[in-house]
Amino acid sequence: MEGDVGLLRALLRAANALLQQRRYRAALAVIKGFRNGAVYGAKIRAPHALVMTFLFKSGSLREKLKAIAQATYAHSRNLAYFVFTYKGLMAIQSQLQGKKIPIHSFLAAFIGGWLVFGENNPINSQIIMYLLSRILFGLSRLAVQKGYIPQPKQDPFPLVAALVWGTVLWLFEYHQDTLQPSLQSSMTYLYEDSEVWHDLSDFLIYNKRTDSK
After folding, report:
1. Left if phi > 0, otherwise alpha if psi is -120 to 50, otherwise beta: which for 150?
2. What is the reported pLDDT for 57?
3. Which residue among 16, 52, 58, 201 is the one 20 to 30 A from 91 at the CA level?
């Protein structure tokens, strides 16, 4: 027993010593990036899938739990693969050129995005739309910082909010099929189901009646 404990301690010391080796830092960063991608993807997707599945999807409890697990695994896996690919390509480019330059980040992420998120499916679609909105805000701020567009005299956010909501409700009312399925489900619940009821039960307590009355 003591021998096993001593061996374990020796292995831990060896592992910690390896982690301190600067020559392996880039490779170790790739491995930890894979780990962090997997953990973060699971943390982000699990609660979202839980809420959306139980709110909007029909089926047995087992089917719902299976859908949650599949969505969580897909998000976690894809993010882990992407971080692994991105950091690996960044390390290779830096090693080849002897230094890190801005174009490396774009190229590494471009290739990783193509390989990992290139398939058009609900999980990837949600991630890309999430990023797209952040990119638009980021590019707008960068354009102001660089002087490409003047600093607004008033906060433009109220106008942006009005344009976003005006556009998305117009699309929902007249071109609903162009919107992403989960957004359609959310908006159907908010704006269409709120116009249908039969009595107090499905007016205040339930969204829809499940009986045949």
Report:
1. beta
2. 78
3. 16
